[in-house]
Inverse folding.
């Protein structure tokens, strides 16, 4: 995968060669009085600014930053002061307070930064101007292969990617590209002015959603183009992720395990599953399936073989999700509204084997216009809606995802256009409309648990009757609700033990998210009520599919299934909600979602019996994705998770 984004020539011009500065810096080139501004973009939609300045005070510099944006009507602001030496950029003190994303708080005070070797003081991706100082520190200290962040102690790595031809941008300044890994979970791209090392553009994530920045020294149109370009370079950098090779990839058999095929049939002990390339060649008991002589076999005695899991509410803004999903047993995911080029590139790269990841199905996000829009794809009229649907259809998307700011006529146009194009519709209920409105207009799926009414009430019974009459699919994302709605007194690990294996930068972010002042009792009461509604929906025969929204990458699928069992569903019901039912909902049940001869070879091996204990679904030892069999421990390790 290679993006030649700078060759597009939208606004970057190639001039005569300008020599780059030396790699080892001895003085601060950015200690220039005056304020600089970066435009901030979430899903390519400009949402705010980072305003920063650097003041020289004798032999020190003081960087002051105000980072602020609005995400769907919610203001996020972070104020930071970084003091560092002017000779080699060593941090002396650091203060950062506020939020970097809607749910993630930052409250870091390091009044006397330790001057340990190869250590820099920073907390999270913002401010981006401080990351530019981090790069200068790395250069000034001889490009150490690994450094540490304070106060977290996290390991970080930086490398420079040479450009060909040389990149020049504004005022004929050369630009240099750096890959930073470990400040957030995964990789970031920083494009820095080679003369004064200000940020030209940056590609990172906020709440695991695509987040970009670009210098505001140019027009808004050029700034947006640069933000788009940097996202392409971020995806390009994904080719350097550690490569995990399949354990088996052609013709082999799994033997001795307990087969839970996802159909609801009784399990088969001492089962055999033969995989030939990307298909299941044969499946059944050892007494009925003949293993060809000389065929490679993998003994999984004492373990269970199940269909590969599905995450029906994913947000995969970065390539690192691929190995994590497979390690957790997820072989198919439905992205619910990412940047067009990000999700199509990941889909194609995972499908073609250029990167490692699950099959990715896509729902194209569309919102109404305005500063509070979610993403840059909007429609304000039925004609615009039809054009958006055509773009997504031509891009190979399976669904449309409606968002909150669409008006009723435009929503109807999205639904009608999608159905005319053999696409289905999912999403949020737009402001001013009701659940009944969107269901009667043609919503096929509904995102999140938006059903109201006390269990057993006439209100709930009427809603269930409406949903059942229209065959509406529910995507509760109850594990996400549990995470966000928890009391601050409740450790995430108490209900989501998988958090202990998450890469440290991401773990800290997730653990900072909670319901604020809600008590443990209030959080429990709300969760219990939601689980009772899920049980009522299931008992009425409504299709429920497992989805996580953001949560803990990969791992939250297991928690979603555990919560369904806690609600009163049987373990096989929970398994089918994450396999057979999503396949049927997406029109793929004739070749996926269950284990049968001739079907796509997507399956998992778990240590234990999820029919007896649904939490055994967390113990995935092997995953077969489109015929490629992986051991899970290398997949976890490849992206910084602990197996």
């Amino acid at each position: 995968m290679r993006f030649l984004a700078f060759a597009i020539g939208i606004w970057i011009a190639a001039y005569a060669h300008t020599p780059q500065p030396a790699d080892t810096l001895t003085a601060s080139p950015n200690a220039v009085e005056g304020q600089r501004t970066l435009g901030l973009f979430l899903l390519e939609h400009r949402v705010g600014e980072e305003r920063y300045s650097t003041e020289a005070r004798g032999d020190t510099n003081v960087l002051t930053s105000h980072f602020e944006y609005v995400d769907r009507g919610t203001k996020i602001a972070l104020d930071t002061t970084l003091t560092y030496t002017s000779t080699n950029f060593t941090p002396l003190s650091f203060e950062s307070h506020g939020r970097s994303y809607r749910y993630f708080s930052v409250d870091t005070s390091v009044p006397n930064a330790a001057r340990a070797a190869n250590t820099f003081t920073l907390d999270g991706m913002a401010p981006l101007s401080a990351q530019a100082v981090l790069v200068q520190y790395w250069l000034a200290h001889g490009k150490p292969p690994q450094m540490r962040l304070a106060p977290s102690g996290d390991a970080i790595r930086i490398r420079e990617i040479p450009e060909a031809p040389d990149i020049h941008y504004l005022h004929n300044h050369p630009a240099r590209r750096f890959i930073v890994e470990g400040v957030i979970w995964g990789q970031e791209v920083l494009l820095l002015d080679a003369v004064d090392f200000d940020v030209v553009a940056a590609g990172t994530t906020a709440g695991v959603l695509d987040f970009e920045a670009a210098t505001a020294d140019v027009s808004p149109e050029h700034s947006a183009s640069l933000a788009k370009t940097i996202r392409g370079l971020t995806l390009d950098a994904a080719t350097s992720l550690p490569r995990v090779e399949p354990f088996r990839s052609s013709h082999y058999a799994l033997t001795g395990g307990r087969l839970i095929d996802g159909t609801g049939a009784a399990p088969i002990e001492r089962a055999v599953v033969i995989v030939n390339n990307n298909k299941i060649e044969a499946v059944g008991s050892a007494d009925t399936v003949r293993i060809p002589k000389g065929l490679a076999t993998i003994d999984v005695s004492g373990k269970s073989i199940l269909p590969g899991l599905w995450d029906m509410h994913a947000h995969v803004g970065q390539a690192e999700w691929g190995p994590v999903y497979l390690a957790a047993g997820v072989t198919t995911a439905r992205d619910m509204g990412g940047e067009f080029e990000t999700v199509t590139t990941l889909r194609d790269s995972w499908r073609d084997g250029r990167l490692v990841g699950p099959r990715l199905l896509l729902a194209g996000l569309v919102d109404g216009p305005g500063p509070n829009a979610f993403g840059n794809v909007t429609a304000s009229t039925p004609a615009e809606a039809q054009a958006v649907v055509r773009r997504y259809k031509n891009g190979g998307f399976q669904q449309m995802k409606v968002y909150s700011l669409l008006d009723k006529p435009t929503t109807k146009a999205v639904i009608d256009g999608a159905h005319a194009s053999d696409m289905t519709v999912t999403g949020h209920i737009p402001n001013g409309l009701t659940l009944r409105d969107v269901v009667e207009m043609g919503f096929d799926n509904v995102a999140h648990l938006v059903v109201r009414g006390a269990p057993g009430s006439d209100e709930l019974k009427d809603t269930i009757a409406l949903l059942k009459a229209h065959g509406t699919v529910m995507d509760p994302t109850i594990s996400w609700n549990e995470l966000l709605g928890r009391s601050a007194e409740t450790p995430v690990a108490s209900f989501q033990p998988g958090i202990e294996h998450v890469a440290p930068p991401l773990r800290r972010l997730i653990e900072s998210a909670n319901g604020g002042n809600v008590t443990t009792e209030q959080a429990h009461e709300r969760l219990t009520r939601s689980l009772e509604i899920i049980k009522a929906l299931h008992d009425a025969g409504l299709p429920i599919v497992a989805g996580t929204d953001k949560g803990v990458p990969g791992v939250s699928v297991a928690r979603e299934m555990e919560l369904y069992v806690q609600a009163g569903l049987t373990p096989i019901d929970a398994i089918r909600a994450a396999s057979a039912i999503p396949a049927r909902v997406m029109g793929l049940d004739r070749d996926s979602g269950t284990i049968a001869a001739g079907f796509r070879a997507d399956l998992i091996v778990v240590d234990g019996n999820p029919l007896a204990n649904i939490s055994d679904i967390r113990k995935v030892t092997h995953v077969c994705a489109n015929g490629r069999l992986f051991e899970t421990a290398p997949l976890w390790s490849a992206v910084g998770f602990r197996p």
About this structure: The radius of gyration is 25 Å. Residues 5-240 form one domain. Residues 479 and 560 are 5 Å apart (CA to CA). Confidence is low (pLDDT under 50) at residues 1-32.
